[in-house]
Amino acid sequence: MSVYDLVVRGGSVASTEGVFPMDVAIRGEHIVALGQDLPQGTREIDAKGRLVMPGGVDAHCHIEQLSGGGIMNADTFESATRAAAFGGTTTTISFAAQHRGDRLRRVVERYTALAERGALTDFAFHLWISDPTPETLVEDLPALIDAGHRSIKIFMTYENVRLLDEQVLDVMAVARQHGALVCAHAENHGMIKWMADRLVSRGYVAPKFHPVSHPRGSEAEAFERLIRFSELLDQPIVLFHVSTAEGAAIVRRARGEGIKVFAETCPQYLFMTADDTDRPGLEGAKWMCSPPPRTVRDQNALWRALDLGDLQILSSDHAPYRYDETGKLSAGPGSTFKQIANGLPGLETRLPLMFDAMVSRGMSTIEKFVEITATAPAKIYGLHPRKGAIVVGGDADIAIWDPNREVTLTDEAMHDNSGYTPFAGRTIRGWPEIVLRRGSVIVSDGAIHAKPGSGKIQLRDCADSMKPSGTPSPEFDPQTNFGAHLA
Ligand code: URP
Ligand code: ZN
Ligand code: ZN
């Protein structure tokens, strides 16, 4: 009998450090050996001519979740993670979304039960806080962080879920004390509301006015504000979905100042522009998300920021709504852009789009692809080395890619429930053919083999990324004359 349950043989194993010809041996759920000419396994996968990559970690996706605007998104954990798996992603971090009046502890129980029933990939949650009552801040949040839910999501805009500045600081102070990251949808609420109301009152209501209503300065202003909160408390933050050149430049400067800021962008900001919403009737709603995609100049700046490491994470921000009365058009055929649910499906296309651009078209390298789509998100969110890399002792989460397979994306070929992809019509080269999650083949031959509910929750320890760097500003540091007033 073999010592290995499975050997992935003869492929090129990709990491952030390089691409090496190696076999990967798996016992149970884990990788137990890497090397050339490993002994025969009980089962073998022939990976000659293939790239053997870590399963993707998608650290920002909305699954089976009520939006800020109160619209239920189109996916269940089963449909969303099925799409993720087909696209080479084996771990998702979605949201346990607290709405006002909800008890946070119950929210986490509810989302955990939904994921345990449906998920095919492994999963974790960001704790989405929109009701920072004493019950939330003193009782539930500390206990949930200590239990391993080590990232929090806050909104600075969206009427029903946004926090005021002082509430953001309250949440950040609890995160600092217990060791969690604070992730943010950072846009200036007042600027957006003022612009949107003015546009609508003048009759400019089509989807193409949605990007106009989110001025680029609203991102810059909110980034700068949150960064100064982070500096005051010495609390690490993640700025979600950077969309502008100015936003990327602000992140770069803050990191240069030694402030612990991480940042992500998403395929829609690299491959789409505001013009994508300019379509007949309400059709442009399919391309509407917040913040909106901007210009080619912004795309170029974001690519450069990824290259420089100013942005570390590439997530999908999968937020699926059908183009019908259950989703995008829930306010009816006369909807203004303000009434249309924001968000795009993207769990399945995230990795193929990025592989095609970065590797097949030569805009970057395989190493960088692995870094921004798997290893860096796993490290920043406390999942590494269990997830995000092909290493001995890690979970056997592996996507075996045919780097030459050409696929034209179509609405019909997608496996989530939104019914469309904003990237339909693009032909891309490189596709994940076989996907393993903890040693089990969950995708092969174009079919899914995992049972709903076979994904496992990933509780997390406090990673270095989540720890304060140790020097809060004198105004907050209880060791100083100023900060003593706050102790
Ligand atoms: O438009 C988007 N991104 N919708 C999802 C909610 C959010 O803003 O993250
Ligand atoms: Zn957002
Ligand atoms: Zn989002």
Give a structural overview:
With 487 residues, the protein is an alpha/beta fold. The protein folds into two domains: 4-54 and 389-448, Urease, subunit C, domain 1 (Roll), CATH 2.30.40.10; 56-371, TIM Barrel (Alpha-Beta Barrel). Helix content is 30%, strand content 21%. It contains twelve helices and 17 strands. The protein has helices spanning 77-86, 104-118, 134-146, 165-178, 189-201, 209-213, 216-233, 245-256, 267-271, 296-308, 350-360, 366-380, and strands spanning 6-14, 19-27, 30-35, 43-46, 51-54, 56-58, 89-97, 122-128, 151-155, 181-185, 237-239, 261-265, 313-314, 398-408, 427-437, 440-444, 447-448. The strands form two sheets. Strands 1, 2, 3, 4, 5, 14, 15, 16 and 17 form a nine-stranded mixed beta sheet that branches. Strand 15 and strand 16 (440-444) form a beta hairpin.
How would you summarize what this structure contains?
The protein has twelve helices and 17 strands. The mean pLDDT is 97. Helices cover 30% and strands 21% of the residues.
